[in-house]
Design a protein that fits this description.
single chain, alpha+beta, Ribosomal Protein L30, Chain: A, 3-stranded antiparallel beta sheet
């Protein structure tokens, strides 16, 4: 074999970007009972009782609170499901999403 038969091939792997993350934000309102907010957080976001209570209190005191961070599709789905659950029980509870910086 000659040197030309043993050429080294280099392969480049395409660099994949990580998906952009989005924050799910709980928006405080004066109508939804605090206990119900905790229930929604526990059901939809699978958050423990204590953490759900802290998130609810933070939103109550500051007006908004970041609940969790997910990929865009998951964040939007969880926010929509949480809002739908609240609407089904007659409450105006609102969750929004925004890109993480």
């Amino acid at each position: 074999m000659s040197d030309t038969d043993l050429k080294t091939r280099t392969r480049t792997k395409p660099k994949l970007d990580r998906p952009k993350l989005h924050k799910v934000i709980l928006v405080n309102d004066d109508f939804t009972p605090r206990e119900f907010v905790v229930v929604v957080l526990r059901i939809e976001f699978r958050i423990g009782e204590e953490q759900a209570h802290r998130i609810m209190i933070t939103a109550h005191q500051k007006g908004v609170c970041v609940v969790a961070v997910f990929t865009r599709e998951i964040a939007e789905t969880k926010a929509k499901n949480a809002c739908d659950l609240a609407r089904a029980h007659g409450y105006p509870l609102m969750f929004t999403t925004e890109p993480e910086e």
